Amino acid sequence: MSIIKTVKELEAWSKNADRKTSTLGLIPTMGYLHEGHCSLIRAAKSENDLVVVSVFVNPTQFAPGEDFESYPRSIERDYKLAIEAGADVVFNPETEEVYVPGSSTFVEVTGEITRKLCGASRPTHFRGVTTVVNILFNIVQPDKAYFGQKDAQQAMIIKKMVRDLHMPVEVVVCPIVREADGLAMSSRNVYLSQEERKQALCLSGGLKKAWEYLNSGAEDSRSVKKLIEIIRNEIEGQSLAVIDYVMILDGETLEEIADIEPGKNALAAVAVKFGKTRLIDNRVLSVEAR
User: Fold this and answer.
1) What is the pLDDT of residue 289?
2) CA neighbor of 130 nearest in space, from 169, 188, 77
3) Helix, strand, coil: what percent of the chain each, to 5?
4) For a tag on the chain, would you pick the N or C end, based on fewer CB atoms within 10 A?
């Protein structure tokens, strides 16, 4: 199967694939695939008859001054990795194919879920994400769509969009895939210098220390304030790290909480810049039964 570039080509493929009797999984990506993406493709292949991977660097989710122009791109590499992981089709449209000339329609999720974390520092970002995901859902018509837990807020927002708009798509969120040393896999990791890459381990390190302290049995172990302090201390110990945010919020609603209660999940999320590279990471925190 060659790379599909247009909506009409995808529609023709879909018709030939007999979608009436086949289930289809979609993995929306911006390309420069890594093992995290491949794990999503394999998950989709295990649960569906057909798998489509979209590769599209979406301009509407980048603010002025962000890395849209320099975002890493290699469609030949992406195609090889996607097919090896089990994809049936790689959909790689041009911008004009996704946003038709004169396009001025956006899909936006509002409320606290989009105003915190990345939504606070990148206020137009999620409008671009929900708009392009909506367009891709309309084009591909998937039964299931697969997203990574590394982009936890994004996954929560897309789930809300699907629920609010009664979209016939099941959103599947798969675990974070990490390098052997703990760094969350990201296409932007290629931007890091050797020293930045080394120091970036403070993200996963700080989140791990918070989880360990939460389950240590210490008197203040469930205090969100204390757990944030632990994460910040780990990150601030690195000379090149510039913190965007360190937050621990309710794992379902992203509402602020003072303590992590037994039986409930909290989301510990961080965003940190190393030079021009902004990295995010998160961990679900919960009190383990003793």
Assistant:
1) 62
2) 169
3) 40, 20, 40
4) C
